[in-house]
Amino acid sequence: MRFYKKRFILSLVFIGFCYVCYIALIGNIPLNDLEMPRKHYDILWTKKSEKLVLQFHQHSYDPSKVYSNPDDPYHDRILEQMHFVPNSYDPFRSSEKIIYMFDGLGDLPSGREKFVFDKCPVDNCVLTDDSIKMSDADAVFFKDSYAGDFVKDRNPDQIWILYMLESPFHTPDLTTFNGLINWTATYRWDSTLTAPYERFTLHKNISMNKLNTRNYANGKKKKVAWFVSNCGAMNQRLEYAKELAKYIEVDIFGACGELQCNSFDEKNSCSKLLQREYKFYLAFENSNCRYYITEKFFRNALWNDVLPVVMGAPKVDYEHAAPPNSFIYAEDFETPEHLANYLHRLDQNDDEYNEYFKWKGTGDLIDTKFFCRLCSLLHDESATPRYYKDIEKWWRTPLTCTRDKWSNSSHYITDWTATFQ
Ligand SMILES: *[C@@H]1O[C@H](CO)[C@@H](O)[C@H](O)[C@H]1NC(C)=O
Ligand SMILES: *[C@@H]1O[C@H](CO)[C@@H](O)[C@H](O)[C@H]1NC(C)=O
Ligand SMILES: *[C@@H]1O[C@H](CO)[C@@H](O)[C@H](O)[C@H]1NC(C)=O
Q1: Is Cell inner membrane one of the keywords (predicted)?
Q2: Is residue 328 a part of any domain in this protein?
């Protein structure tokens, strides 16, 4: 009898030990250095696992705002999704969700690693690119494939997800996907999972803000810089820049200009050059499309302490995505000449110029934990089934993109057939 009791206690100790190891291992994986300086100050995890679920449910993010709502077009729902733990989810009992990556894993590790490494609140998902698993998968993720025989194999129990980061000008016709795609994952805020190039998030705790007294004009002798590789964009941006250059010094780097610098990744690179020498940066996108704001704006300009002049999405989209008072909207000016006059004025007035940098220190670009959010949503058993009857129409409504200014609706693209390559 005593023997059994001892064995029972030993087993308990052993189980407890394993549990502590598990929590210690899962809970202490360092943040991915490659993703710095994106911070993840809004920590989700505590190490007390049994209380974990409760704590999430008490969190201030509203779980009813996890799915897109046409009445709320400027809510990307990223923070809600990052904190979302479905009621039906049990970290120890819910069955694993298999996500089949139709176009391969790319840099992603297979299996559960990505979810554990990212400290997802819901991490019971695995990634695979093994085609044998396609039929068993809970979700199929399409990144570069838009058409093919595979559409015949549609298993209605699966969630099909379409991921797109390029604008409608640079993505093919999606008609063969009509009726097949359940969720979208794009830069658009009305996607099921918004996948922005970057997301600026104000500090929740304003005492984290840093007082900012720096003079951002200091030592900068040059005026406007532009780094550009694709000269034939769909929005007249090159013509605009050339016209602007008649009235203010514009240095064009890359394929469309005469100047060269090293890539943004290297030390002492384009990025250092921008920070040191230039006051303004043309963050002109290759497409004028709703919500289409890329790293050109966030990385090239904002994070290099240079004031961006933007062209791309409608102004209201920038106002929602950008830090407050952080950019100049090109279309606000009647002509490039008017813009140049304004830039000259800022160039001569450091106080006015520095007004555009007051936001610095009030927030960060965050890692939006895309795969964590995907895993959470896949575990939501109570979600209403959804799919896009006409995904092509969703992607290319008449208001999606314009060839020129947003203020003139006769430039909006209504017939897309001519734009497909
Ligand atoms: C806000 O941040 C400060 C400094 O980091 C900290 O002392 C304080 O407890 C935080 N407040 C809240 C409500 O988190
Ligand atoms: C996914 O889409 C299919 C149509 O392609 C539909 O029959 C199914 O109900 C959807 N599933 C969910 C969970 O939304
Ligand atoms: C709008 O664009 C069209 C076509 O380019 C042009 O004819 C028209 O004058 C423009 N309207 C305004 C108000 O600028």
Answers
A1: no
A2: yes
pLDDT along the chain (421 residues), means of 10: 57 51 36 30 37 42 87 92 93 93 95 96 96 93 84 89 94 93 97 96 82 92 91 83 96 86 70 93 95 94 96 96 97 97 98 95 93 97 94 92 91 80 47
- Domain with 345 in it: what CATH number? 3.40.50.11660
CA of 331 to the centre of ligand 3 (A): 14
The answer to whether residue 122 sits within a structural domain is yes
Ligand 2 pocket mutation pick from 387, 389, 390, 391 by most atoms within 8 angstroms of CB:
387
Q: Looking at the CA of 41, name the nearest ligand.
A: 1
User: In which domain, by residue range, is 264 found?
Assistant: 204-365
Q: In this structure, which ligand is nearest to the CA of 409? A: 3
pLDDT digits (tens, 9 = 90+) for 259-294: 888 766 666 688 889 999 999 999 999 999 999 999
Pocket of ligand 2 (CB under 6 A): 154, 156, 159, 179-180, 182, 385-387
How many whole angstroms separate alpha carbon 298 and alpha carbon 271? 12
Determine the 3-state secondary structure of 80 from DSSP. Answer: helix
Q: Scanning the structure block, which residue is given the tokens 């303004």?
A: 280
CA of residue 93 to ligand 2 center, whole Å:
25
| Helix (H), strand (E), coil (C) string for 31-67 | CCHHHCCCECCCCCCCCCHHHHHHHHHCCCCCHHHCC
User: ∠ CA(24), CA(30), CA(34), 5° rounding?
Assistant: 160
The answer to whether residue 44 is domain-embedded is: no
pTM value? 0.84
Do 358 and 383 reside in the same domain of the chain? no
Residues 260 and 142 in one domain: no
From 316, 345, 365, the end of a domain falls on 365
Check whether residue 145 and residue 211 sit in a common domain. Answer: no
Pocket test for ligand 1, best of 204, 207, 210, 211 (most atoms within 8 A of CB): 207
- Same-domain pairing of 234 and 358: yes
Question: Residue 410: CB within 6 Å of ligand 3?
Answer: yes
Q: Which ligand is nearest to the CA of 206?
A: 1
Q: Which helix (H) or strand (E) holds 169?
A: none
- If residue 328 lies in a helix (H) or strand (E), which one and from where to where? strand 328-329
Do 345 and 214 share a structural domain?
A: yes
Å from CA of 224 to ligand 2 middle: 50
Residues 336 and 377 in one domain: no
- Residue 358 shares a structural domain with residue 214: yes
State which of 205, 208, 211 you would mutate to test the pocket of ligand 1, scoring each by most atoms of that ligand within 8 A of its C-beta.
Answer: 205
Check whether residue 159 and residue 123 sit in a common domain. yes
Q: Let me know if residue 12 belongs to a domain.
A: no
Strands (E), 37-143: 97-101, 125-128, 139-142
